[in-house]
């Protein structure tokens, strides 16, 4: 297996990370009914995943820069496989928290290493192809997780078991693919030690723009994945998890389909479009919740999926262009650290509001809060454009030849 094989093995890891993240999403109403869980408990279970990432990424974010991408990805997928076993055997909500901790820790190890490996093993000659493929891989994993978990829960006995057996099998297959990939350990690696996350000064503004773009996508995704199944159940009055899975899968499928067309879109333009479309998607989200409309919900799924794809691809593309290779794993890990911190805060906040008030009030307040995040992103992008324009204007003009 050469670089091309390593590229696709890394893509499978990113798909696996999002599969694990979305695997319980269609099942949250079943858990809530079976164990009498409030919306706050459900969203906190979801948020445990990014919270675990917040612990792992600052400590181990630079691990793949020292030991190579492959072994760090393998370690991450092993933790995801262990989480599948815990979820499959869970007798109470405490096991759900434990499983999400393992999933988050595994994602924390695998995501930065997997994204860096995609960039370094990209043989197409197009630097934007790796960013688009990262978005496509994660969208594919999430789409299949939502649809498969809903179908298994509806048509198979033991609805809280088989979904995680599939996740376990896929994790083992991904580990096997990574074991066949070339060894990518640096020849002259320094002794590893935990390092405080940092970003070179010259790329900090670009880093913050990229991070806010990714965080924006993750925050909207947090609402969708933690409460989307509850919204569908409330709007349609159905307990059919197969229908819930397909409806949730529409958004993830839209993300993947959109990503197919983004390899030629400049990263900056992608981030602009993503932020702009997110404004529209937030309006649809709030309207769907306020009016209990499944049609508006589907509109949110489609527009939100397109916005997510543009925002995530644009953010990753910007950081891929700016980050120096020897610090790429650490820089990407810090980006994911901040983005997942926003995601965790969004999930817990919406869950608390839904528990103390109503689902529609929680979603409306969340939309207004995320509008502030979008405004900050627009301001930073305008500042960056003006700074780059000033830098070009200050360059000395070469004398004309006579």
Describe the structure.
Helix 1 packs antiparallel against helix 6 and helix 7 runs antiparallel to helix 10. The chain is mainly alpha-helical and 402 residues long. It is built from 14 helices and no strands. Helices cover 80% and strands 0% of the residues. The model has no long low-confidence stretch (mean pLDDT 87).
In short:
This protein is mainly α.
Question: Which SSEs are present, and which pair or pack?
Answer:
Elements: H1 3-22, H2 28-35, H3 39-60, H4 63-67, H5 69-88, H6 93-120, H7 127-155, H8 162-180, H9 204-236, H10 241-259, H11 267-291, H12 294-322, H13 328-356, H14 359-393
Helix pairs in contact: 1-5, 1-6, 1-7, 1-8, 3-6, 3-9, 3-13, 5-6, 5-8, 6-13, 7-10, 7-12, 9-10, 9-11, 9-12, 9-13, 9-14, 10-12, 11-12, 11-14, 13-14
Question: Keywords, please?
Answer:
globular; 402 residues; 14 helices
Fraction in beta strands: under 5%
Distance between the termini: 57 Å
How many DSSP E strands? 0
> Which geometry do the CA atoms define?
globular
Q: Residue-averaged pLDDT, rounded?
A: 87
What is the CA-atom radius of gyration, in angstroms? 21 Å
> In sequence order, what are the helices and strands, one letter per element?
HHHHHHHHHHHHHH
Count of helical regions: 14
Question: What portion of residues is helical?
Answer: over 70%
Q: Strand pairing plus helix content: what structural class?
A: mainly alpha
**Low-confidence parts:** none
Largest sheet descriptor: none
């Amino acid at each position: 297996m050469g670089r091309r094989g390593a590229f696709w093995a890394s893509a499978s890891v990113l798909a696996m990370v999002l599969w694990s993240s979305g695997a319980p999403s269609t099942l949250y109403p079943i858990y809530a009914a079976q164990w009498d869980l409030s919306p706050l408990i459900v969203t906190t279970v979801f948020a445990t995943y990014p919270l675990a990432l917040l612990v792992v990424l600052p400590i181990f974010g630079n691990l793949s820069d020292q030991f190579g991408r492959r072994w760090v990805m393998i370690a991450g997928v092993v933790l995801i496989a262990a989480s599948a076993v815990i979820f499959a055997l869970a007798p109470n909500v405490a096991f759900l928290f434990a499983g999400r901790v393992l999933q988050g820790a595994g994602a924390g190890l695998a995501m930065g290493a997997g994204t860096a490996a995609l960039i370094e093993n990209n043989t197409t000659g197009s630097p934007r192809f790796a960013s688009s493929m990262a978005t496509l891989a994660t969208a594919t994993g999430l789409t299949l997780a939502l649809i498969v978990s809903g179908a298994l829960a509806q048509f198979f006995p033991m609805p809280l078991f088989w979904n995680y057996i599939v996740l376990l099998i896929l994790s083992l297959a991904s580990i096997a693919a990574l074991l066949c990939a070339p060894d990518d350990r640096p020849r002259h690696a320094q002794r590893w030690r935990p390092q405080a996350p940092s970003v070179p000064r010259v790329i900090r503004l670009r880093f913050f723009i990229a991070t806010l773009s990714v965080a924006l996508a993750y925050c909207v995704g947090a609402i969708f994945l933690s409460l989307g199944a509850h919204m569908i159940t409330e709007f349609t009055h159905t307990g059919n998890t197969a229908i819930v899975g397909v409806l949730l899968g529409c958004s993830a499928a839209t993300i993947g389909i959109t990503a197919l067309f983004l390899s030629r879109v400049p990263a900056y333009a992608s981030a602009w479009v993503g932020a702009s479309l997110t404004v529209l998607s937030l309006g649809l989200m709030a309207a769907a919740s306020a009016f209990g409309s499944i049609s508006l919900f589907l509109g949110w799924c489609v527009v939100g999926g397109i916005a997510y794809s543009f925002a995530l691809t644009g953010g990753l593309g910007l950081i891929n262009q700016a980050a120096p290779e020897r610090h790429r794993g650490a820089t990407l890990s810090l980006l994911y650290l901040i983005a997942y911190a926003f995601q965790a805060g969004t999930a817990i906040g919406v869950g608390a509001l839904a528990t103390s008030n109503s689902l529609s009030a929680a979603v409306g307040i969340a939309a207004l809060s995320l509008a502030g995040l979008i405004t900050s992103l627009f301001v930073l992008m305008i500042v960056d454009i003006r700074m780059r324009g000033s830098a070009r204007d200050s360059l000395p003009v070469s004398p004309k030849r006579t």
